[in-house]
Amino acid sequence: MRLAVILGFTALALGSNALYTKQSRKFPEGFVFGTATASYQIEGAWNEDGKSENIWDHITHNKPHVIADQSNGDITADSYHKYKRDVEMMRELGLDAYRFSLSWSRILPSGFTNEINQAGVDFYNNYINEMIKYNIQPMISLYHWDLPQKLQELGGFANPLVVEWFEDYARVAYELFGDRVKDWITFNEPKEVCYHGYGATNLAPQLNSAGVGDYLCAKNLVIAHAKAYHAYNNDFKPSQGGRCGITIAVTSLEPLTDSDEDEAAAEMHRQAEWGLYAEPIFSEQGGFPKEFSERVAAKSKAQGYPRSRLPEFTEEEKAYVKGSADFFGINHYTSRLISANEYKGEHPVPSMYDDIDTGEFVPADWPTSASTWLFQAPNSLYNVLTHMHKRYSGPVLYVTENGWSTGEGLQDDERVQYYRAALEGALDALDEGVRLEKYMAWSLMDNFEWMRGYTERFGLYEVDFTSPERTRTPRKSALVYKHIVANRMIDHNYEPASLDITIDEGY
Ligand code: PNW
């Protein structure tokens, strides 16, 4: 007991000492702070003004039981009608930028460019213009998981023609909004699209084609990204002068012990989880990650498949994809410790996790959130930022999502603590020369959390989903984030006097 007290006291003393020096650190001049959302999660108006059905409308309407609270995004935060309030919240927070996604089926109801839905275009123009009016930079994700249902029926990302469909759609978006939008993200989180949607049943369209469909999706999605990048780079960047990149979810995957075996296991895990998408675009050699490709090829052969379940890139495709990003968007939430032999779960054969063949461990002392998968690990954002900086020779990095889930309630001290720790990690990484330029908190407000419905909340603002107005109320974290954005530094002693929030001069 005594020892614990002494140790605790020492840790506190060291901690506050460290804080003392750290508190004086400022985010660099021009650093961009924002928040992020996604179309299906906030817009609602699922069938209004010509929007067609997408895969999330389809799954929530046809299989409501797969959603934790049988809910859907039919109305959700109703941003389609409440977008002015959204921008008012951005002004209350003093944001420099806002990341949101376009609903493909709202702009192109058939999925193709034969018909452009003017009402959908008007909505995005209004949203963007309202941001521009207050000096808030719009950052657009072209695809945040809501494929037009018609395109899914044609195979979605398992059909190689998706690369054309996506390029056509991207060109329409650049043409319509590129005069005002200077940051384009082609895809949000390819692994979540491909593995969870095609290789498992964790997200729409729940194809459950484990170890096959997910890998077909991976190749097609990466090429679709490159197509949209080259379209921007060749035909729009010269006149519009923006940037185009991709957002990949990067979990910090560290070895459980310092053994060579565990290090190799952690690397195999990284190659599969995010390397499948990052390596073809950002690595020197291009193509899918080497050790993981060899592993899948060997396993496929042993399992009697005529060729690897993971398709290869041709040399031409490799060259086309390599370097196809002006920035690397990182969505970062959590960490896992990886073991070569311990903690192995049961996985279907074949499947990506059977191919990886490692164990995952989460120490009991990592704080837990409202989401089963989300733990707060020490230095997690720092680890990811420095890893990517070294691995890919210093690309421009944006954190395009980072956040913490709670239940309902405005006093969200755990979220405050999570954001402060993550942003200290960002400052540590900046000190080491990492080229991090932008940081988007997930999320501006509570929204439809996919399979978890409205049971987990990620918002800086709470949304009352029972009120017709979908009233948005700032949480404590909103005031703390506002303070960080305004002062460009993290004051660990700042306690908001109340949860009242107002728009400061200049916004
Ligand atoms: C993100 N991980 O997904 C999505 O982009 C959001 O739409 C979603 O609401 C948010 O997280 C919260 O769940 C994640 O590997 C994908 O740790 C992967 C991870 C975390 C979140």
Helices and strands in order:
Elements: H1 2-23, E1 32-36, H2 39-42, H3 55-62, H4 79-93, E2 97-101, H5 104-107, H6 118-133, E3 137-143, H7 149-153, H8 162-177, E4 183-188, H9 190-199, H10 213-235, H11 237-240, E5 243-249, E6 252-255, H12 260-282, H13 290-302, H14 315-321, E7 328-331, E8 335-339, H15 352-356, E9 359-361, H16 380-391, E10 397-401, H17 413-431, E11 436-442, E12 461-463, E13 472-474, H18 476-487
Helix pairs in contact: 4-6, 8-10, 9-10, 10-12, 16-17, 17-18
The structure holds 4-nitrophenyl beta-D-glucopyranoside.
Structural class: alpha/beta
> Total domains, how many?
1
Radius of gyration: 22 Å
Q: What share of residues is helical? A: 40-55%
CATH class: Alpha Beta
What's the architecture, going by CATH?
Alpha-Beta Barrel
CATH homologous superfamily - what is it?
Answer: Glycosidases
Provide structural commentary.
The strands form three sheets. The protein has an eight-stranded parallel barrel, surrounded by five helices. A three-stranded mixed β-sheet has the order 6-8-9. It has a two-stranded antiparallel sheet with strand order 12-13. The chain has 507 residues and is an alpha/beta fold. The chain starts with a helix and ends in a 20-residue tail after the last helix. Helix 8 (162-177) packs parallel to helix 10 (213-235), helix 9 runs antiparallel to helix 10 and helix 10 (213-235) packs across helix 12. The chain has helices at residues 2-23, 39-42, 55-62, 79-93, 104-107, 118-133, 149-153, 162-177, 190-199, 213-235, 237-240, 260-282, 290-302, 315-321, 352-356, 380-391, 413-431, 476-487; strands spanning 32-36, 97-101, 137-143, 183-188, 243-249, 252-255, 328-331, 335-339, 359-361, 397-401, 436-442, 461-463, 472-474. The chain is globular and about 65 Å long. It contains 18 helices and 13 strands. Residues 1-20 have low confidence and may be disordered. It has one domain: Glycosidases (TIM Barrel). 4-nitrophenyl beta-D-glucopyranoside (PNW) binds at residues 38, 41, 188-189, 192, 249, 251, 331, 333-334, 373, 401, 442, 449, 458.
